[in-house]
């Protein structure tokens, strides 16, 4: 599905920020959806979530730009939930925390299909990108 490459402990660069920030505008377009549930058919017995091309491109960009890291994301799920439930907490997150959040959400979706869609629909993915935009703007006067 994705050309996966995971890193651990490397500092986030402006290039990495600039690679994913254009998706903020894409996701804010009126009526944008990250995908939809498909129904069972002759070829697939189980319904599954099918991402749009734009969202697939976002996920590939995360991998291509080393936003997905090697970590024990399962142990980090409770912490990630705190960031989802408390937007004020996300507003103070640094780039490493955001990388860990993105990794947790992407990896969790692999085991709990629809998780990323829920994070998109509740505004969390957009809030993450908005926070990264703020970090980039703070770093670039």
Summarize this structure briefly.
The chain is mainly α and 141 residues long. The chain has 8 helices and 2 strands; from the N terminus they run ααββαααααα.
Pairing-aware structural class of the strands and helices?
A: mainly alpha
Distance between the termini: 38 Å
How much strand?
under 5%
Give the low-pLDDT segments.
1-8
Radius of gyration: 15 Å
Reading the helices and strands in chain order gives: HHEEHHHHHH
Find the count of extended strands (DSSP E, 2+ residues).
2
Mean pLDDT: 88
User: What count of helical segments does DSSP give?
Assistant: 8
Instruction: Please give the share of residues in helix.
Output: 55-70%
Q: What overall form do the CA principal axes indicate?
A: globular
Strand order in the sheet with the most strands: 1-2
Sheet of most strands: 2 strands, antiparallel
Describe what this molecule looks like in 3D.
This protein is mainly alpha-helical and 141 residues long. 59% of the residues lie in helices and 4% in strands. It has a two-stranded antiparallel ribbon with strand order 1-2. The longest helix is centred in the last third of the chain and has 17 residues, at 95-111. It is globular and about 50 Å long. The N and C termini lie far apart (38 Å). The relative contact order is 0.18.
